[in-house]
Description:
Layout: E1 3-6, H1 9-18, E2 25-29, H2 38-41, E3 46-50, H3 53-66, E4 75-80, E5 83-88, H4 93-101, H5 108-113, H6 131-146, E6 160-162, H7 175-186, E7 196-197, E8 199-200, E9 203-204, E10 214-217, E11 226-231, E12 237-243
Amino acid sequence: MPRRLITSPVQAARIAQTVGSTRPQLIITADSSIPAGLYDHHPTVELIILGVPDARDTYNKAVRERHGWAVYRRTIHAVQNGRQHYWHEGVRPETVFGWFNGIKPPSRQTVRTVTETKQVEPDWESMFDNWQDTLQWLIQVAWVKRIPPTEKPSRPLHPLRISDDCPKPPETARLNAVAETMMDVLTGHADIHKPHPLARHGKTVIGPWGNPVIRCSIPRVPSGPRIHYTLDDAGTVVLLDVSLHDELIRD
């Protein structure tokens, strides 16, 4: 398998212009691990490694504008003949190359008439054993997607942990929407979600570490679920609950 390490934005921009059009390719970031044996299964697939953050950000900006997709940390992104697919970095090599072998070259007419590519969001929940890991990852994805490269150093994600008592959010809340909201909380932009101390019987509910429990809304979710969180002794944001009813919060 040919391998290319991309270490400059100029290289990354050139790759983004031709990705997937000339040969089957796998694109990963430098901090993603490559499954053992990946090199042994398909000698014609080119592996592209985005070796530095600037290269990754430049590549993602260009391919989003051109194709509507991007590459994420801890994933493997396969591209061939205008089609693309994601896997978690622990995927089996034969699965990856089974996908490549099942892609047939498009006709000349198809190549000429395709004007846009629909972005397909990876099925993140199927890539993790539990919803907590999925949510933590979706928060990272939201941060990578929404925070511009020039603002990432000044808008890092505040530390987060999920309480052991926190149940899985209801289906109406949607993990993606929870992650988008928590990303705003963790980057200091919770105001758009109308955060306020949770009150019961006219008194502010206090969390296990003596800090108020904060309640905020999840945008574009009509059923009205709310996120509840607090701070622990170290200043870490602790997700307590995503629910429809205040009584689900424990004192």
